[in-house]
Amino acid sequence: MTAARIGLAVAAFIVAAILADYAALLWGAGGADVANLLSDRYLHRVVGFTFLEASLSALLSLAAAIPTARALARQSSFPGRRLILQLCALPMVMPSIVAIFGIVAVFGRSGYIAAMASSLGSEWRPSIYGLGGILIAHVFFNMPLAIRLLLPAWGTVPAESWRLAAQLGMSSGQVFRLVEVPLLRQYVPAAFTFVFILCFLSFAVILTLGGGPRATTLEVAIYQALHIDVDLPQGGLLALLETVACLIMVAIAWAVGQRIDFGRGQRMTGLRFDGISLGARLRDSATIVLATGFLVLPLAALLYDGLRGLLFARFDGGPLLAAMLVTLALGIPSGIIATVLGFPIAGAADRLRGRRLATVVIGIAGLAGVVASPMAIGAGIILGASGRIDLYAMAPYGVVTMNALLTLPFAVGVLRPAIARNNAQYDRLCAGLGLSGWNRFRVVDWPLLRRPIGLACGLSTAAAMGDLAAIALFGNQSLTNLTLLLYNQIAAYRLDSASGTALVLLALCLATFAAIERGVGGRGVS
Amino acid sequence: MRIISLILLAAATFALAGAGPALAEPAKLTVYTYNSFTADWGPGPKITPIFEQRCGCKIQWVGVEDGAALLSRLKLEGKNSPADVVLGLDTSLTEEASGTGLIAPHGADLSALKLPVAWNDKDFVPFDYGYFAFMWDTQKLATPPKSLADLSAAGDAPKILLEDPRTSTPGLGLLLWLKTVDGDRAGEAWKSIAPKILTVSKSWDEAYGLFTKGEAPLVLSYTTSEAYHRMEDKTDRYKALIFPEGNYMQIEVAGMLATSQHQDLARKFLQFLVSPDFQKQIPTTNWMLPVIDIGADLPPVFGQIPQPTKALMLPSTEVAAHRAAWVKEWLEAVGQ
After folding, report:
1. For residue range A428-471, what is the model confidence (pLDDT) as tens digits?
2. Which residues of chain A does B65 touch, with a Cβ-Cβ cutoff of 8 Å?
3. B69 closest CB neighbour out of A101, A227, A477
4. For A382, which of B68, B76, B201 is closest by C-beta distance?
5. Is A254 exposed, middle or buried (0-12, 13-18, 19+ CB in 10 A)?
6. Which of A8, A87, A323, B128 has the fewest CB atoms in 10 Å of its CB?
7. Are B82 and A390 in contact (CB under 8 A)?
8. What average pLDDT is seen over chain A?
9. Domain A40-303 in CATH 1.10.3720.10
């Protein structure tokens, strides 16, 4: 039980820190006028719109991710499969402005699609500014993440089950209904909630692609309250409202989610007999190509702009190199800490399943980094540190710590189902052999969990490498990562150089993600 | 085990962080500013050695997101703020900043100022200024709007890119611009502009990026944007539009904190801001206009860009008093 207790302790600490942060805001300046705020018409509209865009975004992302993940699971030797899975980490590192530019380059009024229409002699131009643009951007950001979160589900089905399904002569549709639907019921609610929350807190994408103030999310209102009006109680209250709304979604997902047990298998890689037929192969290939195309087209635009920027624009060599080092030096430790903290939390989540309060604390802690408003966390830290801690001197540690907490949900999200499965399968064996603690981790857990640990570390590192919130909060001028450099370049009209920086950031992220996934996770294919 | 090593790590971290300042030698002037000011090509690296040599001190720059973030940071930190000087607020924020009681009178000699408006603020020293203007992409649009009235005339073309007044300074600038020109009818003016808006972005960065990518032929920016394109990109494709109603001004300012432990240094720094050594760096690093006459040090391009016929600016007190109501009016006109 020690590991579980450590997990619970870490989780309790994180939840307490977030609560203290919100409390500091709420009571920082005399308390909030709750009644007045909650009856505000503007706020009602904002909350309504936030729910709408987040639900639609999550639905579409999952609707695209499920068939793609299924196709990737069935066609385990699809050419370029490993690269496609690595590309899935890229949107996570992408600063919102870069994603916006990439999407506009494809779907914008002067984008590729518009150019194609024009060369065909058509007057029609795509119009993405509005809900459509928001949804395109959110699916671009989250479909790849959802694919990575869902794909391990297929790996949990023992090879014997697929063989049995084939022997029973099940068609592809029957396999889907009888095996995959129950399987997805276990994984989809968590992935949906995760994506929903990320979209719920979306900000720059919403304003810029939303076409006007009709598209306003709660996070915009929080930004307005904390950043512009400096109305702390109002900001704190809105942030609390945002967090509570997200947690309600989490609770619904937990209620809907279902644990199923496929029994013990030999852990062999199973051949998907229903994926062998030509029809299935064609269908799967088409699905993969379509989804990959949607992901790759904006990336290709960014690659083109980036190469042009690096080759022809003024080259900020020194600052670029320094920013690369800062990005790695801050991103990798954050990812490692997130994984190291996430492991006991994910473990505790499984061990303490029956204890309701513990489950809630652990559940919140695992998601704290995404359900808590980054604006509110930042304001709370400034408020709490003021006069006590020198944020400037603390900057490197502060940025790493904050990013570790913000990216913890990615680690926990990946590790939780993997650890639960491992425990279900080997707890009794380990108890019988008297294996526990470090020895058990070394002999049983590590070899079997290397792959999810690698994925957890890779995803959280990628997310931390794209950080702007923490680095902007601590404000130390010797710490400029690639994201901050990119914004500084844009502010100085150096948009071409900024495209180059964006490309460097993406390439660095891809290389780091691939290295971690392979280095930690081993050579196997997920 | 793991907990103990974590505690040790945290303790070591705190010890290291605590040891840092103890080793400091010369006096340290802490200046809060926005990030792009201290970027490698911004004014920061150019002026830092000049001032440090003059004062025998060290400047510690602390960068935040933008001007609004400066004010919120000051408000959050209050009397505990380690800042000595805050640099980068603008005239739409000064009244609110003074209202916090955290800013001490600057006492600087501002007789050299050459601003289009008289400067009477006792708390803040202006260090650069600019005019908001719509930038026009001559390759995407044949005839640009001739005036603000023309811009808000009926129809849904040409498309324009704007910034959100709730989250960005230029966005707020346009709001105040229309208020100055149209007064009580500003709401109606916004209603007729609404169909032309392609999008309203979070900050200038996104809007200007979309503009140079050709998404719309007009964007709200500064007249000095044209100077950048002429000088650095060697192109006259992008032109700033001067409107007969006048162009709204933005003056960027700095002030010292009443709680500063280095009052003399802070005063010296504020005086330095209006000296030629500082001012001649401004045009090509911050792409704004200098507040004093720097003669031949002003690159010729800045004389060639169109000059506004009328400088508009509302008193800071009025902005502070009505900003919330005006933003609401904008929301209702554009957001319905």
Report:
1. 889 999 888 888 889 888 998 999 999 999 999 999 999 888 88
2. 227, 472
3. A227
4. B76
5. middle
6. A87
7. yes
8. 87
9. yes
